[in-house]
Specification:
Layout: H1 4-20, H2 36-44, E1 52-54, H3 57-71, H4 83-88, H5 91-103, E2 110-115, H6 119-122, E3 132-133, E4 136-142, H7 151-166, E5 176-180, H8 185-197, E6 202-206, H9 211-216, E7 222-225, H10 231-239, E8 244-245, H11 252-265, H12 270-289, E9 297-300, H13 307-315, E10 322-324, H14 334-342, E11 346-348, H15 353-363, E12 367-370, H16 372-380, E13 385-387, H17 388-391, H18 399-414, H19 417-428
Parallel strand pairs: 1-2, 2-4, 5-6, 5-7, 7-8, 9-10, 9-12, 10-11, 12-13
Antiparallel strand pairs: 3-4
The protein binds iron/sulfur cluster (SF4).
Iron/sulfur cluster binds next to helix 3.
Length: 429
């Protein structure tokens, strides 16, 4: 048995060892909003969908706000789930009654039942819910934050849940592509135009507002997944024997590869595909060459699609010593991971605010494209900073027009550095 003296000596050894170890700054703030938001964006935007949310009123309050503000200007409906209902065991009958109530509206064709963090609703069994009520399919979408670590990954879960129920694989259409990823409308038009040139006859894009696009998604002969976090969706199509094309048409070399990969997956005319891929590559190279520049930029968003932008910036001569995102390192993002790492960018996944702040102090960039909480810290240092979601996600990035738009934007923001330094000097005085 251990005596007091021995215990004290062990304790002292331990605390002396701790004194000598380097003090690590704690990482406290993971950077993503409530993951349910990402899933809600996908399901609430569908015409004819009415969400039934299974959670307590605290989540409901915040998420109703975000669905109005960012998503569909559509309310979400929920059974009364306060402590009384959660502890009384009436949750399943209450949710079923709410579904019945929603389905009385004949225009409702889809009722996503979104279960969130509350332990009693996160474990809701799909078998206890009806599959169809009235005109509406009822689909359970599980989005508890303790399991899903970021809102982009919640989009993937929502999409996979809907596809599992709705996608029809019975009829295949040759020369048809499904594009997976939320993209700027001009990018969607550019993708359609280029794919038409190589002989693609039909393009469906998900997430979509139209429930029929989810049904028809199964008819596609290939799936181009533009963002690396749609892993479950990609696995779902792979299981259903539909080839997956990763990557995206950002930057000269990746765009060439992307067009060639689609051509190969659909067995299109090789010479035609090669010609179009070369043309697009040359156009992008010209757009980049006209904008070759310098400067140091840090990209630190939480949308999960940051690294293609890093690639484009590196291609144009901008230094990007550090970049971070809220999602995990995925198989679909592995090409970018290896390339950017070889080019010397320090990449962080599931990043914390504190990691981003340390990177700012270490690299002293000319511009930061980050999250709101990081940006306010950066501006106080006299460095220009903009919000990734508002600035990047609201502009084209694909093909030559996207490269030109993005590079012009970044250079105009870098040019604001003297103004920010002047402001800092003014407020410091
Ligand atoms: S408790 Fe969970 S679902 Fe509710 S707001 Fe927080 S993270 Fe979102």
């Amino acid at each position: 048995m251990i005596n007091d003296e021995k215990f004290s000596s062990l304790f002292n050894i331990l605390s002396d060892a701790q004194k000598d170890s380097p003090v690590e700054e704690t990482n406290l703030h993971p950077q993503t909003m409530c993951p349910a938001f990402g899933g809600l964006r996908v399901v609430t935007r569908i015409d004819g969908a009415q969400v039934c949310m299974a959670t307590d009123k605290g989540c409901m309050y915040g998420l109703t706000f975000v669905t109005h503000f960012y998503a569909a200007r559509k309310s979400i409906v929920s059974p009364e789930l306060m402590s009384t209902q959660l502890s009384s065991g009436s949750i399943v009958p209450d949710i079923r009654a709410t579904i019945e109530e929603i389905a009385k509206d004949e225009t409702v064709r889809l009722i996503p039942v979104v279960s969130l963090c509350v332990a009693e609703t996160a474990g809701l069994a799909e078998e206890l819910l009806p599959k169809k009520v009235g005109n509406a399919e009822v689909v359970l979408v599980r989005l508890p934050a303790y399991l899903i670590k970021s809102h982009p990954e919640a989009k993937d879960i929502a999409l996979e849940s809907l596809l599992k129920r709705l996608a029809d694989f019975s009829k295949k259409r040759e020369k048809s592509v499904l594009i997976v990823g939320e993209i700027f409308p001009l990018d969607a038009m550019a993708i359609g135009a280029v794919l038409q040139k190589i002989g693609v006859e039909s393009v469906i894009t998900l997430p979509s507002q139209h429930i029929d696009d989810f049904r028809e998604a199964g008819s596609a002969s290939a799936v181009a997944v533009l963002h690396p976090f749609y892993e479950l969706t990609a696995e779902f199509f792979e299981k259903n024997k539909t080839p997956i094309i990763g990557g995206n048409p950002v930057g000269a070399n990746s765009t060439y590869k992307w067009i060639k990969d689609i051509g190969a997956a659909l067995k299109l005319d090789e010479a035609l595909v090669e010609r179009v891929a070369q043309e697009e590559k040359e156009k992008i190279k010209a757009a980049i060459a006209a904008r070759k520049s310098g400067g140091t930029v840090i990209i630190a968003g939480y949308e999960g699609n940051e690294f293609p932008l890093v690639r484009l910036l590196l291609e144009s001569g901008v230094a990007v010593p550090y970049a971070s995102t809220s999602i995990a390192h995925t198989k679909l993002g592995d090409d970018d991971h290896r390339l950017l790492t070889m080019l010397g960018t320090d990449l962080r996944y599931r990043k914390y605010l504190e990691e981003d702040r340390r990177a700012i102090l270490e690299h002293k960039p000319d511009l930061v494209v980050g999250t709101t909480s990081l940006d306010s810290y950066v501006k106080e240092l006299g460095i220009p900073a903009v919000y990734y979601t508002n600035i990047v996600s609201s502009r084209p990035i694909y093909f030559a027009q996207g490269a030109a738009t993005m590079l012009d934007l970044i250079q105009s923001l870098i040019a604001k550095r003297p103004a920010f330094e002047k402001m800092k000097t003014f407020f410091d005085a």
